[in-house]
Fold these 4 entries.
Entry 1:
Amino acid sequence: MRYPEATRLDLVEDLHGHRVADPYRWLEDDADPRTRAWSEAQDALTGELLRALPMRPEFTARLEALVRSGAVGVPVWRSGRAFSTRRDPGQEHAVLRVREADGAVRVLVDPMALDPEGTTTLDAWSPSWDGDRLAYQLSTGGDEESRLYVLDVTTGETVDGPIDRCRYSPVAWLPGGEELFYVRRLAPDRVPDGEEQFHRRVWRHRVGTPADDDALVHGEGSDPTTYFGVHTSRDGRWLVVSGSAGTAPRDDVWIADLAAASPGTRPPLRELQVGVDAQTAAWVARDGRLWLMSDRDAPRWRLAVADPADPATWAPEAWQDVVPELPDAVLSDVALVDAPDGSLQVLAVHAVDATDRLSVWAGPEAAHPGRLADVEGLGAGSISGVSSPPEGGGTAWVGYTDYATPPSVLRWDAGSPTALESWEQAAVAGAVPELTVVETHATSPDGTPVHLFVLSQAGAPDTPRPTVLYGYGGFNVSVTPAYSAQALSWVAAGGVWAVANLRGGSEHGEEWHRAGMRERKQNVFDDFAAAAEHLAAEGWTTHEQLGIFGGSNGGLLVGATVTQRPELAAAAVCSAPLLDMVRYELFGLGRTWNDEYGTAEDPTELGWLLGYSPYHAVREGTAYPAILFTTFESDTRVHPLHGRKLAAALQHATSSEAPIVLRRETSVGHGARAVSRTVGLAADQLAFLAKHTGLHTRVALR
């Protein structure tokens, strides 16, 4: 192919004794006329190539149906009202609704009603304890710069907002709905240049008053990248604040007794956990106990209780276990429920080999603690959350999805503790192929078993077929079974879709996460390569029929794989990727990830980064596979410069005729997007993979 001309700079820097070349530094600058011209030329080249892909119309049509399947969120209960999201077939975005005690349902926030162009997204929401007010956050154009509003639930009228600089802000209400705690960044003129995305603080806000008059609660002197969490007890007595530097797998936790603070004064926060290499989620529940879900001395997590009023019970050795750490399962979520006799019980979610299980445990007052029952009826799927009314009751709601089931909600009742029933089912639009899901294990070079889910159409021939291998491997993210229109569309067309549970995720607890971060990051790439080799060895596919796929941190995974093992796959899709690991901290939210990857400012850690940085691993004269980079111009997490720089480097270096192209989108960011934008992107990605893995079978649309 004739690629757009890209000037190569003779730029080599000495960084801690390393000679580091950066020939495409100029592509970091969005405003540089050379960047604009190069990007527009890439648009023309990629557009022509994508439009000519033979299976693009078929994938578009199938995705139009499957992507538009519905989705239902887990309800949040407040004083008899249930708040939840729902997207029906044909809707671009989910709407936020309230279900009244009499069963009547009303829409409270509809992003499309606010913005018919579809570029506004609902980022977060939180109802007050009394259910009469709702805090919600919106962003536009993919920038994820959340603006906070408050509405009156009964009238639907906005009573406060917008309050800006609320990205990633939790909200914790006080009883009565007049005040809340939230997180907001300092104004840009109060922080150093280049740090406008950082410097968060916890504030106390009275609804209807200017945000600039809010009372500062916590945050001065913290690391600029700190993210804060806030939680209040239902009676308004207790405030819990947590903080973690960036995405580090550790947090500090403080507790304040608001009843002991004088009106109008700043509540004194006492240390529960500070400077400890562990994660602890803490809250005071309706029983007055301090509940603690933690990986402290328990890498697969445990649930315990303490006394919020007695600091002597806050030490881990004094905690009373309710759900102890299990040797073969990872605790991920809990809900408090009442047994038929009125005693307190816990509904717990555990993951075993990336499949979620549900069980019932005795509460802290039980004479015989431990597991009471396993809940039946769940397949190889994922539980997105468990919810119960904060005032108590014998019912809980369970969010569930699997590879063939869109996100739906099940109902659990203490009267039948081993059973679940459907509560609200998401609509399915389009024909979902009958799936065969096989679980298997690859072996990484160091002997570590790597779990895979392998999806194919029931009754498909038992011969090597075009296969897509997906992975992520980072940030403690567990890749569990979930409805995927892309996977279903690929399988319906006759292909195989595989998902690898790599180190760096949370599938086996915090030790599994740490085995794939920092100096051990290469383990993730080794696991992925082992998964690819396993699929070929077991006859699912061949290397000539294999495509690899990943986004964000998974884009780094794909970038590292194609530069380390270019012969491993015939095609790759690298979406919203992180690829220049020497300079990643200088852009977007990169600085918040240096605990996951390491920092180039440290000589030793720079060595780790250079050991796998895809941009710096490109070698001229190498036959690279077909690669489609997809980037988003409004991405404020991972700057599109990463895709630009590696695309230019590979286009210059490759000796193969396989195309290496860059697809970019405007007015969309790293996260949520309208359904129609999802269809267009996914169709291009699948059609590209099909073209270069040999998937040509046309299956009649049903």
Entry 2:
Amino acid sequence: MEHGPSVVSLAIVVLAALLTPILISRLKVSFLPVVVAEIIVGVIIGKSFLNIVDASDPWLNILSTLGFIFLMFLSGLEIDFDAFTQKSSTQKKSKVLKRPLPNTLVLTSGIFIGILALSFLFALLMRGFGVFDDIFLLVIIISTISLGVVVPTLKEANLITTQMGQVILLVAVIADLATMIMLAFYSQLYADASQPIWLMTILVGFAILFYLLGRVMNQSHFIKQLNNGTMQIGIRGVFALIIMLVALAEGVGAENILGAFIAGCIVSLLKPDQDIVHKLDSFGYGFFIPIFFIMVGVDLDLPSLFSDSRVFILIPVLLLAFLLSKLIPVMVLLRYFDVKRVTAAGFLLTSTLSLIIAAAVIAEQIGMITNAESGMFILSAVIACIITPVVFRQLYPEGENEDRVINVTVFGNNQLTVPVSHSIAGGLYHVKLVFHKNYSDSREKSTENLSFHEIPEYSEEALDEIDAFDADIVVLGANDSDINWRVAKMAEKRGVERIIYRVDDPTQERAVKERGYELFSTMLSSKTLLRGLIESPNMMQLLSDEETSIYEIQMNNYRYDEMLLRNFPFTGDIIFLRILRGQESLVPHGDTPLHVDDRIFMTGTREYVEELKRELELY
């Protein structure tokens, strides 16, 4: 009886993929990205050392190709296209900033243009000195930035939501998108393909069609019903999209990874549920992608690579080009940030991996470079990924998120706003109470956490003078509904995240809700309170007691993402009551993982809850 291809090599690679993250954790080498460790493990078991894996095994070739495709898909999925619509007017003051940032998209696009210009200059110099001749390929390799390294590093440092973190992220996103497009044109120009380049417009046309179809399916109630249990129609749809676009890309003479990257961009634009994103990450980083990276290491032949004397010239020159092409353009950020933060940002942007591997593999396949040159490019990327995240962590100042406070601006000086301002001021909350001087006899003195501001009129100039909209929460509690409405629109224009609006006129409720403001009504609150006292007097006493109140915390700290509650390091006087995750309401227990964007309801002492808010919400 004849047997098919042996699965021994596959078994070795899968076992290596399983053991690699375990070894990293046990050896406490957290500075080493997992993907880099997988390449190193591949080098050990591959041609360079043990040679126990058959690189020509058909199982491994198929799964490695799928891993490569899935890696490019997830690279597209990681791109947050909302970042391109950010406005500088929404920024709040920061102790870190020397001056307000300009339009973030313009700033980061300018930085990437500088990176591209320097990459071209270094490519010309390397060609002039006879180091390497292919200028187009060098520009792609030097200018690319690895989102797969930048995003986890920013998350681990809790910087992804900070202003510097957003600048770094957007530069990486633009670089990832631009260099991927450049690589597609490079492969189309130099590959021995009979299809003309204009056929790529067919791929773009189908991508637009699939995006429109996806929007329709997203809104279909019937499709949503099929997205549960064993059907998992959303996951099936994503895989169908990837395969169809990969097939289309090959059909028009482009590289299959371009189709996979476009598929990732389409899914990102469709804003999938976090549950689907987690499942796709599990498919990719749990199985396919580790096999690809291990096989990259298996194919590296270091002995023959170092027998070529050019390796001792090309790799140092490439590493220097990687660093200088990123470090010099980001120096423009010295106008807004200190030297340490800007230098650290330059080093982190030097990290590059996935697209260099893609470019090296593609260039070797189409005969533009040799196997040795491909190995040199990949090895330089691996070295950069080992060094740059470590340097970033060492250089970037700690304590960016220390002394966090929630700034609240309350408008109106009356029997409702004054007691509430006094009760919340202190600790986590800094409160400004703003009122018209003609409508108040207040003689109270300002304190560290509660300040009183009399203004001559509710104009933008008067409110800007006291920084009224430099706040996380604005409460419109004045007795005059016209004032509340006018000031609410000013706060919305200035990008205030939460606007709480007092409504005494029932006819105004609909307009307030349509604007997206959080509504509270004194009449409705009084009815609710009276009914609660009648039906559940003990419950109302429990809710009104500061020591037993129920609090809500938004989980924004990536450090605790996926952490089980039993491993949660804060174990003070507190009880978790409920977790809201999207449309799902969970009863928490020890094996419940925390996810970013969870809303956690808890009860406990106010001091401890405020400490948790500082840690989890990262205001």
Entry 3:
Amino acid sequence: MAGRRGGTATLVAALVVIGWLVVGGVAGPYAGKLGDVSTNDNASFLPADAEATRAQDLTAQFADQQTTPALVVYARTTGLTDADRQRAAADAARFARVPGVVTPIPPPVPSQDGQALQVVVPIDEAEGERIGQVVDELRAIAGADRDGLTVDVAGPAGLLADLIEVFGAIDGPLLLVTLSVVLVILLVVYRSPVLWVFPLLAAGTSYALAAVFVYLLADHDVVKLNGQAQGILTVLVFGAGTDYALLLIARYREELHRHERPWAAMRAAWRGAAPAIVASGGTVILSLLCLLLSSLNSNRALGPIAAVGIAATLLVMLTFLPALLVLGGRWAFWPRRPAVDQADPQTEHGLWSRIAGFVARRARVVWLTTAAVLALLTIGLTQLGVTTLGQSAMFTQRTDSVAGQDVIAAHYPAGTGSPATIFTRQETAGQVAEVAQRVPGVAAVRPVTQGSQAGPPEPNAPPKVVDGRVEFEATLADPPDSDGAERTIRDLREAVHGVPGSDSVVGGFTAINVDTSDASARDRNVIIPVVLLVIAVILALLLRALLAPLLLIATVVLSFLATLGLCALIFRHLLDYPGVDQSFPLFAFVFLVALGIDYNIFLMSRVREESVHRGTRPGVLAGLAVTGGVITSAGIVLAATFSALAVLPLVVLVELGVAVAVGVLLDTIVVRSLLVPALSYDIGARIWWPGRLGRTDRKARHAR
């Protein structure tokens, strides 16, 4: 009978594997097509009621054709020559023939110091992501620096082109680096030439399956996929997927010591590990879906995209991976094949058994010391510096758009090429223009006239009127992505809003940054408490207690704050970054807390399981001994996969990758290995209050 069941189980496992291989073959190509449905237009991510969004809608009414300007700037420190001016004029004529460029191109604008010349090249916004290709053609025409003349293509179009190039690395280098990192770690962890294949194949299938759903959602405009979300999806699926695989494989290895047949061992392992894996994945999914409460479209999109990735990973890791392991049997662990010896799992974890013994002897000292060290690290939060990263601080390397913006700032009013737009009623236009001109940081205010978008306005030309409104362009004295420019926009809005009956609206590139910053601050205040509440409910249901979830959440929050403090010191003094982007604290919180709670779930679900049979304090030690190695390995895998984001030369993703890597390592090595076990051991059976386990444990001890 057992042989017949074993044959049936093997056949079912084979059919599951074949089915998933077919799914992977069909879904695989979609992983390379995500870039086709990705967009990187920051303005499209703003909430509909943001002032900058309303300004964009008004811009569409005033412009015959909406454009994104590329600023081609020629500069020579010794002064431009006639040959330089002729070259710029010839280039402008060639720019006009590039498909996607809106003509006529305005005449070149010389700087007052005679050292720079700027050509504004309007590019049709309808080109979408192809704006990057148009900019590439402009750069090819303009050519490289030579004979002391520098040539750069900057402005909003130049910046967008550089971002598109950065995110283009996601489908290639980022995926390759992530796969390589996971492969190396699996080889080190398992020391087997065979076993690493199974989790890596399952993780790859998870990513392919997730890519199908994300592609369809983005293609049908259900979500807005951008390069940042795409990069996070890649490392999240491989990192979390490998974590789940490590947990299942570790439990499977334990059960192979108790069961002769692989299918019986897998059935026991699945029953033991699946609840923790499902609870862990469910916690991450629900935490990510809390991003739907964000007022920023980019955050709202990231939540479902990442949640889809985790859901796909759960499905694959709980079906495909077990089937692979059943077919692999004991030989998959070669050369360290587990024998049927009924060994206590703790005997295979000598190091972690010794750590558990240390925790038992010094429980109170351990948790007080580790908590104090983490609290000390939070002092670094004073160095964090949450800000809007300027264009020059956005990239880890000097791009063409950054170099061009620096030249523009040196020879022109820094806001040239990216003016603020002011829309107001026709009857208050004169008063609004006068008030705007008096705002500190505003270099010039000019009306948009009929045909003025093709060049300088004619003297005394009347403003263009659309539905009773007129538009002004306000050139800012500071670079458009600087803190100074943002302060000017806030002052400008306050000034023009104060004109009675003007119904003024201020938009533009800098206004988008201002509204994004305000929305990010609001999101942090709303989403973080909701995520904590969701996690508390899940932990309470899983552990059937209230005190344990509250203490676990407290350790996760302390770990998060300590991570931010440590990262602030790393960013400021080691990487020399000026600060962190407005989106960083929220993203870091969601990923660190959601993923950090994973290890709480892995540990405490096993502790509870052991406590039922052994009692709470012995259960804590047994749970730590058998899960310490796998949790640490899982943490190293997740930290390493998020570190792969460093291959993308974008500061915000490098910072997020470093933060998750540092936080996960801190969480697994300090919090999960020492703080939580020591605190749980010190509290004892009361940790399960008000659940039945705590009461029965105490009664059993009194009876003894």
Entry 4:
Amino acid sequence: MVHWADYMAGKIIRERGDKEEYVVESGITPSGYVHIGNFREFFTAYIVGHALRDRGKKVRHIHMWDDYDRFRKVPKNVPPEWKEHLTKPVREVPDPWSCHESYADHFMSLFEEEVSKLGIEVDFLHASELYRSGEYAEEVKLALENRDEIKAILDEFRDRAKQPHLEDSWQPVMVYCPHCRKEADFVSWDGEWKVRYKCPQCGAEGETDIREGNVKLRWRVDWPMRWAHFKVDFEPAGKDHLAAGSSYDTGKEIVKLFGWKAPLTLMYEFVGIKGQKGKMSGSKGNVILLSDLFEVLEPGIIRFIYAKARPNKELKIDLGLGLLNLYDEFDKVERIYFGLEHAKNSEEEEELKRTYELSMPKLPERLLAQAPFRFLATLVQMPHLDEDGIIRILQEQGHVPENLTEEDIERIRLRIRLAKNWVEKYAPEEVKFSLLEKPPEIELGPEVREAMLEVAEWLETHEKFSVDDLNNVIFDAAKKRGIPSKKWFKTLYNVFIGKDRGPRLAPFLASLKKEFVVRRLRMEA
């Protein structure tokens, strides 16, 4: 079974021909936080580029920051007085939090920092710089020359959607006022480099030279122009851009005017958080960022989430109990990659190995210690254990090797911190617990009391024991007295944490100080 990124890479080579360099593109307007849904476009472009490189091809991944788009509305988390900056380029709107050069920089810098942690190299380009440097000047002029053809293409698709035609005054460009920097009205074009404008905001009017960068192509023209300018071979897109008659359909026709062919594309579905209602929106503020995922997930696992899911399937990330299953799944795939475990069949095994390869920021030379996240979520809640103590317990119970390298220890410590964050921020109440400071005042029948004393005596007389040994003793003590397992475990959980249920009992008790467990089983303060 071929991984979807490899399939797409093969298709690009077949349809675009053998080239010296292939260009993949992603892009977004930094009008708000770049969330985990936006990241899917970025990662889809990246992973297809990764697959092309693995075939020995030279690849350039461009991520276009559309920071020359208009500031269209004031998000909820931005002061309302920012409405005075509406219609300016987002790159020229001040940063409301006063920590970056501009509003757009605030969001771009965070995302670029997040991406670097995932081991992804990309060319970040800025539309504002490209327009203002005059790099797009020839294409802007060409769009004005082909204004009628472009309008006819857009109107044709409007006919199909039974929408009214664009107004006769429509132009493929918009103008930023050179004085107040807000959107101005297009008045006329002289057929060469000058565009006449009139600003309804500040009242200024006059001419601006296209090469100065104040004249910008509208979205449906800008996108195909970019394909041609950078010779893009592949760019994924959301289903809104790929719907019939939408920007990709019109772009396929408009790009021909710029002398290029539309890139291959791949539709990606929305990404959300399990249990969260509605679509994430940077302007609404209901977003989860890569930074949020970094608090509970290793970088490789973040990449794994996106690498294993086919882009055309909606992706719901579970930060609750499902996160424990995700760690289990990833660890299993990692063991399969290193030949320590096997999948159901060879096809599935090859796909899982390939998914792992595409997921890792840097492929390790060997399997690093896998501290089970599920167990760590228990250990980090024990007040007597620091990081070193947790590592010791993991070694004693056979979860990690006795001889650990610095790399192993670094990974274990990272997982400990991630598990701690998960318990504090996302773990459901059923997973959380705290040790009772003193024995609870509960009614214990004579059989239960005897069984508890037997376990306590066994612990006192055994200096070393395995979790399995302890587990057998706990079960046998109840079984020989006819105590139902459900009642027995419920009692023990209530004795230690005051709840009817808790973490797996034997590993939990084996992780506590033996003296404490013995005293508690004897119900001594």
